Predict the 3D structure of the following.
Amino acid sequence: MKLWGGRFQKDTDLLVNELNASISFDQRLYREDITGSMAHAAMLADCGIISKEDAAAITSGLEDILADIEAGKAAFTADNEDIHMNIEVLLTQRIGDAGKRLHTARSRNDQVALDFRMYVREQIPVIVGQLLELETVLCRQAKKHQTAVMPGYTHLQRAQPISFAQHLMAYAAMFRRDVTRLEDCLEGMDEMPLGFAAPMGNSLDGVSDRDYALELLSGLSILMMHLSRFAEEVILWCSWEFKFIELDDAYATGSSIMPQKKNPDIAELIRGKTGRVYGALVSLLTT
């Protein structure tokens, strides 16, 4: 029986289960869901809604579930639809009725809003760190090649000469703006229906707002455009027609039939994966 199935007389059809379940996607939110549930249990106990003993049992049970998930010992099922219900079922199986009391005063919409925001908030600094690392590499290469001269291009026609360092630093400037956009997104999303720096101003908006995700995807789309643009230049520069640079063997591939070839596959894949991010932005805007 589903956790929400009290009024239903028939089991859910398997096809409906498959269509309705999101556990294959949202299982990555397990840490955020467990962290949020621990905080919720502490709040319920502090307010006298559940006993301190129940809160302690819930917290201990959730810690054990977290350890089992990270050790690959916990099994999720589509019957429980999503990460929230999967964890609640596991908790109730382990600690009994106290596990059911965890859901007091919150809905799954509250959990979704919390988990998603927490995940985005934690991932933005990771992406920013990777971008800053890329900027550092570009600056290091630019410093090394300050006296290297190359043709500038307009319309793929040779124009005036420029330094290779100047060209690389143009991309460093683009990625710096990408960092700023992501940092602005992080600052603007630090409010929640269940915590963070400030509470949401409206309860309906608290569970339905996805602006922060759209802002992130917008920023990531611009970032991917910059990466795609840079990757295209790398592809051109590696070609025999240009022959400005050669990729390290660790970041190139060969041909299955022509052994003389050294292909910039990684740069080509970056360009190909750009469409996924654009598609995610359009999909979420439409949803």
Summary: The first strand starts at residue 149 and ends at 154. The radius of gyration is 25 Å. The chain has a mean pLDDT of 94. Strands lie at 149-154, 157-163, 191-192, 198-199.
